[in-house]
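Working notes for the structural subgroup meeting. M.R. asked for a predicted model of this chain before we commit to crystallization trials. I am recording the input and output together here so anyone reviewing the notebook later can reproduce the run.

Input as submitted:
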Amino acid sequence: MENSIQEKQLVIHISGRVQAVFVRHNIKRIAEQYTLTGFTQNLPDGRIEVVAEGEEICLRHLLDWCYRGSFLARVDSLSFTWKPASRVFKNFSISTRGQSIIKDEHQALKHLSRRVVRRVINKVPQHLLIIPDGNRRWAKDRGMLVWQGHEVGAHNTIKLAEEAKKLGISFFTIWGFSTENWNRNIIEVKQLMFLFEKILEEYKSWFIDHKIQFHHFGRKDRLPKSLLESILHLEQKTKLFTKYHFAIALDYGGRDELLRAVEQIKGLTNIEEDDISKALDSYGFPDPDFIVRTSGEQRTSGIMPWQSVYAELYFSPLYFPDFSPAELRFAVQDYEFRQRRMGH
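Returned structure, recorded in token form:
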């Protein structure tokens, strides 16, 4: 920089819920915005360290941001030290301290899990709906095959369902395959159908042991015969369980659901809202009051358009395989403090 007199080095240490919630990525973005050089890294004790160099006024902008943190972060304490600039950095980077990216992320997620307070949550949603986005991108980032990302996501679904049950959430819905997903590569579609059938067989006893009633939402006429048989068999085996419910939306689309509902009731006169609700796939479930979508996409993609008019929305930046039970608890804690006005 031209005015070297004003150049300084700023070392910042941030404590709190700061790892695995995209703080480092945002620090890098802010640093680049102000043309700062240096690096940021996760420390083994759960803190984040920032070493930045540049003009003092720009460093103070970065410091101000670090006090506030990102959307998902919570800064408990912050310390900083001013030093002379070393002028050894060419740009601003995220350091993994010599570890692989995957190991660095894994350790960060462990620290995040410890930060989530295991306290009693007094207000939980009655019906939790999850849009599990990011399986493919998660796999590609790790050099894995796409179907392996879907498999990890499928097993994660059961972990989240277990956590939801512990929290006292009675109705749990996961969107597994949309009506538009048929447009994907035919090999991927076949792998997904095989995976759904495999997972149902693998966890059949889990639903029975946990006394959870299984449901399928969506069309049944286009699913492979063997998969449909597995679905119907599990629905029959668990139909007497009434306290906890698990639904998977396969070959489901919100508009398609409404079209099928209209077809059912088109012969009725004086149609009321309840007539439409009874014709929907989710009849018997309360309307979803909390919808969670992973991977950072901020849309609901048409899931339950009739039922979700008053649902609270939560968008996590994590890919679905990284959305752990601790992350779910964190999301439900966020829901707990919301005031639902329901149109009032």
